[in-house]
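[stage:ingest] chain + small molecule (S-adenosylmethionine)
[stage:ingest] validated
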Amino acid sequence: MDTGPVQQISDPFHIRRVAMVELQLRARGIRDPRVLAAMERVPRHEFLGPEFQREAYEDRPLPIGHGQTVSQPYIVAAMLEALELQPADTVLEIGTGSGYQTALLAELAGKVYSIERHAPLAERACQTLERLGYTGVRVLVGDGTEGWPAAAPFDAILVSAAAPKLPPPLLEQMAEGGRMIVPVGFAASQDLELVRKQQGQPLITRLDACRFVPLIGREGFPSGW
Ligand code: SAM
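[stage:predict] done
[stage:export] tokens:
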């Protein structure tokens, strides 16, 4: 992808994106240079409807349709940083949504697989990703709580919706030494959990408190939440 100065000068949002990285991310402790550079490159406004593009770099989640949201930039960066992604990693994302975080994963990892339960969101995300040149991402419409067994094992799994418990299929599909970041708790509030698989066992570290839309599926909340 061309990220040179010509593209940056012609992007009217570039200055807002730089300010977002400095004031919302670096100032709050995000340190991974690859994550900061990716957040500065990926045009968040392109993943939003025209009515929300002017707010794209503000410090909050924004609606993307079907009752769903794209997460606040800080939480997106914190999740990516916690995963310690390497360029050759194979990654699974649950909850494609707008495709914004998918694009960031594509900047940071090798192969990216993403699952979304709302077909219209998945279709729009695919169109945006393709238009921006992220052609290697595979997107599936379905229940992400069951994972993507045919593409497993995954070096990293990012779940961007709130789970009532760690979905067992996702634990199974983690590579040895793999990492998973997932909000776990009640529908109204959760803790962000970082799971590392070591000798087949999950080691869980609790990070920040957070609030995500529910993960709905066989190993998530029942539909209607
Ligand atoms: N990361 C996304 C972005 O950058 O736009 C935002 C994700 S949004 C917070 C959570 C997404 O998870 C929603 O699009 C929702 O439809 C999806 N979702 C909820 N349960 C799901 C499931 N079981 N499988 C796949 N996607 C699911």
